[in-house]
Amino acid sequence: MLNYTFFYGLGDLELNKYWGVAIATYLFLGGLAGGMYIAGYFAHLYRNRNEVLSEISKFGIYLSGIILILGLLSLIYDHPNVLIAVINPTLFRNFGSWLAVGSWIILFFLVIWFGLLLEYFKKLKLPERLKLAVMSVNAFLAFMVILYTALLLRGAEFVPMWKSNALPALFVVSGVSTGIAICTIYGALRVKKAEKKFKLADSALILIEIVLILYFISELSSMSNLTNYPPFSVAAAKTLDLILQGEYSGLFIYGFVGFGLIFPLLLYALSILKKSLVADLISSLSVIAGGYIFRLIVVAAAAKALVFP
What we know:
Blueprint: E1 4-6, E2 9-10, E3 13-14, E4 17-19, H1 21-45, H2 51-78, H3 81-87, H4 98-120, H5 128-151, H6 160-163, H7 166-191, H8 196-223, H9 230-244, H10 249-273, H11 277-305
Antiparallel strand pairs: 1-4, 2-3
Helix pairs in contact: 1-2, 1-5, 1-7, 1-11, 2-4, 2-7, 4-5, 5-7, 7-8, 7-11, 8-9, 8-10, 9-10, 9-11, 10-11
């Protein structure tokens, strides 16, 4: 089903293996990890004796690295050659490639995250101002981790979906949204209370995602009408057909847009009007599921619609 062969330079090595569920999982967990850290960072900034935000800040910041490591393990499982580069990062020396740039971003993020983890367990002492500065730098790196998961895909030729200008923004918004959602779940389970500011923020992000999806579809439609490069326009038309009428239409329309965006948005609205912990938990879970479904579609539809010149 997911059978796209992707060639990417890795020093003298190549990642010339099928991209499938493991890659979609890596893209999802990378976005989730970045979103968790960003959610935790802002919760830390605005915690001010707020029990929910205090718990969320610790969860988001200190668990994000573990989620990212799990994502890397998914990538290594699918592409064992990557392990060589993890052991010897100097292999990532092609800085014209987002695979190389992104790998250094992930490395720096994890090093800083580990330092913050040591500080949390009192194995390292940092002055409060320095700690905040370090956390802020890592918040930027967390944003770049999410962005990298989309820009990595843009390196492939003949894949209209991955060349879309909307895709990087979609990955960023979706990553932060899923990060907020999982932090909301933790806060609700830990303190038996959901943070209203987080629900409002996630609702706003979902609305932005819906607008971006419409733009994404319009971009694919425009690409399908290109006359100067037939293979690209044919692939764009096939992609559009797959997600709106074909094999992946149910997954896209009902799974991602319906269950992953519209359904949680309605539940968030209901829980804001009338507090409901169950609604908060269900809506957050559907946001996370929708984020994963979207990554699956991004890999699957690209594979199915691939047309070489």
